[in-house]
Write a structure and sequence with these properties.
The chain has 4 domains: 45-164, Alpha-Beta Complex (Topoisomerase II, domain 5), CATH 3.90.199.10; 249-328, Gyrase A, domain 2 (2-Layer Sandwich), CATH 3.30.1360; 354-482, Topoisomerase, domain 3 (Orthogonal Bundle), CATH 1.10.268.10; 499-503 and 512-853, Neuraminidase (6 Propeller), CATH 2.120.10.90. Helices cover 28% and strands 24% of the residues. The protein contains 18 helices and 41 strands. A 4-stranded mixed beta sheet has the order 14-9-8-17. Strands 10-11-13-12 form a 4-stranded antiparallel beta sheet, covered by helices on one side. A hairpin with a 2-residue loop joins β15 (338-341) and β16. α12 (350-391) runs antiparallel to α16 and α14 crosses α15. The longest helix is centred in the middle third of the chain and has 42 residues, at 350-391. It is elongated and about 145 Å long.
């Protein structure tokens, strides 16, 4: 074996590896961009789609011929035009045959071509295909020199660089692909609407984008469904990029048994139905969605039908909202109108996409007219020679008979009758039957027809308006043949009928249990009782579960929902599940994604958002923080951080505050402190706050109120005792002190469980850990001093204790229920303690602790 001699210095050229890699990578990138991943702006096809259709055209595999095996077309395509693997070519054919992928089918397939469930197509040896009539319109006039041809990959044959494309295919069928450093995602549209827009732009070049959008309102997906809002469409049409929100088409059906079912008949584009059903089943198993009893796919040849049966007490709109938020039943389509023009990738606006298609059609029609004109003129030229021959038939016959050979006859005809060489040859080749009278009439009629055609073609080439009219006529013909009704419904964002429009305005009591169950219930469901009664059951709970919070708000009021971990979520009251007095409600995890063991602490109704308002937070360790309300206006569906908490601390409550108001904090051991809201400077969302109240080693904060002038403070203890005290008895101190006594704790009273501000015209709702609830007018609670024991408010069962207290609007019906005043707590005039409840001398001593704190004791805990 001969050794190869090393290259000589004269035959080598040094290059840097950096430049070589840059050049090679750019060559590769441009090959992918131009030759693989992106469509051409003119015919809307990628090279593989174009080559597949051209291969079928060459095989005469048209819409009116017999089907051919898919493998035959794939083999021909990869053998002559697209040497990139048979599976890639077959996948292209499969997609062009799927009615759930293409708005206008380009391949007519026989056999299994996959399904919306994600089922794969059968192997190419089992399926058969042919072009559709619409695909034929893309290739029409290909043999009339309408487009340029280029050499195939090995130079053995020619292929078209673009198709004539009578159809605006890029918009009709859309396109999707990932290139190097860029991607395209063009949605499909309705053929009739796109053609209307193109015709309008041809007739009125000054048409604005707003006028075009009246004719082309938005994408039209083959799977139907809904587009919610026009903002994404406008952005896509005006800038080339936008995000379109899609929702499934659903109906709510009621069964004779009183249950409801959610019926899904259309899904957003490219959503896998089988995978969606699996995802819904998984959410039900994880108990992230409760209320679904059964899921069944009843889809058949007639169409899609997914049936989601709900439980009897399920709130269908809540379940539906959860499905939209947690599954692809609501999805987004990110529009990127990226295509190739003049060999370069570019993002196009709607008007530009239509303009390039019109320009392409102008070029195609011009080239076709030139081709047809040349043919017509050539044919007319021969017919004129035939006419001369018929007019001089006897002389021509004599001339031919007297000629020694055909060549001499041809030359003598040219000289004698001023014929061209082609005319002379055609006369010599003419059969004798053409001399009959009938044939003579045919020749003259065809000559007249050719002259008219030549005239018409010259008019197209010489008159721009006539050229455009031809394009319009052909587009109108395409629309008449192939246009169909719109499938995707576009809902106006500003005029959509929301669920809220169907909800009556009503005050609702919202309850939250320790285990995370939540519900709303009409306030009118509770009638008033006097204090000391046995109460009625207001919520059915498990033995280990207790009601921990109550709140009253209108059904249309937005709610900011704060958890003990410092997060905030946003809902409206009507979005909460409704339940009766005996129902437990629904797990809060079904409404928003709270973490394990995360509990709701405060629900704030926000009727209006103003710059003056702020939210004050209080934590278990005595910290407070004030943040402007607007910081919580835009809350994500997964929630946002409301306050930054350290380990071992959690959020107790949050309240709205305005300039000049005072804040009152209360602790479990009966201490309280009042300070001006200005003492807590405004902070951002991600901060901890400052010291609000200095607590004892075993003490913790249990409540906070924003004080109103003339109001009173209601303090309630775990053993069912409580009192009202005028706010004037709580003097203003500096933030950060130990505070003063607000009620005596321990012994008979137990610890403080609630500190509420009241005005005297409310009703008091109290809940025990056994689920019992009593409603009594606040005005019946004694008004006594700050450092007293209070009176009995609720006659508790053994081992029962109060866990939640809330003030609600007073009931109009003052009828007494279940039991009069308790013997253990006889009625007493307002402001007077019973003998049982009278404080001892020791209890009457003014025991103020840490009334004012020095600056050193405030212990600010601001976050950076």
């Amino acid at each position: 074996m001969e050794e190869t001699a090393p290259p000589s210095p004269e035959n080598t050229e040094p290059v840097t590896i950096e430049n070589e890699m840059r050049t090679s990578y750019m060559d590769y990138a441009m090959s992918v961009i131009i030759g693989r991943a992106l469509p051409d702006i003119r015919d809307g096809l990628k090279p593989v789609h174009r080559r597949v259709l051209y291969s079928m055209h060459q095989l005469r595999n048209t819409w009116n011929t017999a089907y051919k095996k898919s493998a035959r077309v794939v083999g021909d395509c990869i053998g002559q035009y697209h040497p990139h693997g048979d599976q890639a070519v077959y996948d292209t054919i499969v997609r062009m045959a799927q009615d759930f992928s293409m708005r206008g089918l380009l391949v007519d397939g026989q056999g299994n071509f996959g399904s919306v469930d994600g089922d794969p197509a059968a192997a190419m040896r089992y399926t058969e295909i042919r072009m559709t009539r619409l695909a034929g319109e893309l290739l029409d006039d290909l043999d009339k020199d309408t487009v340029d041809f280029q050499a195939n990959y090995d130079g053995s044959t020619q292929e078209p660089s673009v198709l004539p494309a009578r159809v605006p295919n890029l918009l009709v069928n859309g396109s999707g692909g990932i290139a190097v450093g860029m991607a395209t995602n063009i949605p499909p549209h309705n053929l009739g609407e796109v053609i209307d827009g193109a015709i309008e732009l041809i007739n009125r070049p000054e048409t604005t984008i707003e006028e075009l959008m009246e004719l082309i309102p938005g994408p039209d997906f083959p799977t139907g469904a809904f587009i919610h809002g026009r903002a994404g469409i406008e952005s896509a049409y005006k800038t080339g990029r936008g995000i379109i929100k899609l929702r499934a088409r659903v109906d709510i059906e009621s069964t004779p048994e009183g249950k409801e079912s959610i019926i899904v008949t259309e899904l957003p584009y490219q959503v896998n139905k089988a995978r969606l059903l699996e995802q819904i089943a998984g959410l039900v198993r994880e108990k992230r969605i409760e209320g679904i009893a059964h899921i069944q796919d009843e889809s058949d040849r007639q169409g899609m039908r997914m049936v989601i049966d709900l439980k009897r007490d399920a709130f269908s709109q809540i379940v539906l909202n959860q499905l939209f938020s947690m599954t692809p039943m609501q999805s987004s389509f990110g529009v990127i109108n990226l295509a190739i023009v003049d060999g370069q990738p570019k993002v196009f606006k709607l008007r530009e996409m239509l303009t390039h298609f019109i320009d392409h059609r102008r070029d195609v029609v011009t080239r076709r007219s030139l081709f047809l004109l040349a043919q017509a003129e050539a044919r007319a030229h021969l017919l004129e020679g035939y006419q001369i021959a018929l007019d001089n038939i006897d002389a021509i016959v004599e001339l031919i008979k007297g000629s020694p050979d055909p060549a001499s006859a041809k030359l003598r005809l040219i000289d004698a009758f001023s014929l061209s060489e082609r005319q002379s040859q055609a006369i010599l080749d003419m059969r004798l039957q053409r001399l009959t009278g009938l044939e003579r009439d045919k020749i003259l009629a065809e000559l007249a027809e050719m002259k008219e055609e030549i005239k018409a073609l010259n008019l197209i080439l010489d008159n721009e308006r006539r050229l455009l009219d031809v394009i319009v006529e052909e587009l109108s013909e395409i629309k008449e043949k192939y246009a169909d009704p719109r499938r995707t419904v576009i809902l106006e964002q500003s005029s959509d009928l929301s669920i809220e429009d169907l909800i009556a305005e009503e005050d609702m009591a919202v309850t939250v249990s320790h285990a995370g169950y939540i519900k709303r219930m009409a306030v009118s469901a509770h009638r008033a009782q006097h204090r000391g009664g046995k109460g009625r059951r207001g919520a059915s709970t498990k033995e280990s579960d207790v009601i921990v919070d109550l709140f009253v708000a209108n059904t249309h009021t937005p709610l900011l929902i704060f958890t003990d971990r410092g997060r905030v979520f946003k809902l409206k009251v009507w979005q909460l599940p409704e339940g009766g007095p005996q129902s437990r409600g629904k797990p809060v995890i079904n409404l928003f994604p709270v973490e394990k063991d995360e509990k709701i602490r405060t629900i704030l109704p926000v009727a209006e958002w103003t710059e003056e308002k702020a939210i004050v937070f209080a934590t278990r360790n005595g910290l407070v923080k004030k943040t402007p309300l607007f910081a919580y206006n835009n809350v994500l569906s997964r929630g946002i951080i409301a306050i930054n908490l350290v380990e071992g601390d959690d959020l107790v409550t949050a309240r709205l505050v305005e300039p000049g108001q005072h804040v009152l904090l209360g602790s479990r051991e009966g201490k309280s402190i009042r300070f001006d809201e200005a003492d807590a400077r405004p902070m951002g969302r991600g901060t901890r706050g400052v010291r609000g109240m200095r607590l004892g080693n075993k003490d913790e904060l249990i409540g906070m109120e924003i004080l109103d002038e003339g109001a009173a403070i209601l303090t309630v203890t775990s053993n069912g005792f409580g009192k009202r005290t005028a706010t004037s008895e709580y003097r203003v101190q500096s933030r950060g002190g130990k505070g003063i006594i607000t009620i005596k704790t321990g012994g008979r009273n137990g610890d403080v469980v609630a500190l509420r501000q009241v005005h005297g015209d409310e009703d008091l709702l109290m809940v025990t850990n056994h689920g019992q609830l009593i409603r009594t007018p606040v005005e019946q609670v004694s008004m006594v001093g700050r450092n007293t024991m209070g009176v009995r408010l609720f006659k508790l069962d053994k081992k029962a204790e109060l866990v939640a207290v809330e003030c609600v609007p007073a009931a109009e019906d003052e009828e007494e229920l279940d039991g009069e005043f308790s013997e253990d707590a006889p009625d007493a005039p307002t402001g007077t303690d019973t003998a049982d409840d009278a404080p001892t001398d020791a209890e009457s001593d003014d025991a103020e602790v840490g009334e004012t704190a020095s600056d050193e004791s405030t212990d600010d805990a601001d976050d950076a």
